[in-house]
Design brief:
The chain is mainly beta and 118 residues long. It has strands spanning 3-7, 10-12, 18-25, 33-39, 46-52, 57-59, 67-72, 77-82, 91-98, 107-108, 112-116. The N and C termini lie far apart (40 Å). The mean pLDDT is 96.
Length: 118
């Protein structure tokens, strides 16, 4: 089966930066979509940024200009560079991936905590 392993979360001060990584392993060699979502207690999991295999992106308005998504298809890895972090960015960040357009399954990582606080 597929496993997504995340790394890079932590505690940073407002205005700081973090770089999240997510590496996929298992039987799926190509993912149509890979990206990042986040969730705070009492709220729904929300889109942060996703990227298609061909490089098209969809980024949440709240993070545009601050967060940048990238991916290495050969390594099945997706990254999220987070700059100018704000306290409201505090959340558990989840990596997600979909094998192909027609697939109904969406794989999730375990989540990594990002805390922005002074």
């Amino acid at each position: 089966q597929v496993q997504l392993v995340e790394s890079g979360g932590g505690l940073v001060q407002p205005g700081g930066s973090l770089r999240l990584s997510c590496a996929a392993s298992g039987s799926i060699s190509r993912f149509d979509v890979m990206g990042w979502y986040r969730q705070t207690p009492g709220k729904m999991r929300e889109l942060v940024a996703i990227m298609s295999y061909g490089g098209n992106t969809n980024t949440a308005q709240s993070v545009k200009g601050r967060f940048t998504i990238s991916r290495d298809n050969a390594e099945r890895t997706v990254y999220l560079q987070m700059n100018s972090l704000k306290p409201e960015d505090t959340a558990v960040y989840y990596c997600g991936a979909r094998p192909d357009t027609s697939s109904y399954v969406f794989y999730w990582g375990q989540g990594t905590q990002v805390t922005v606080s002074s």
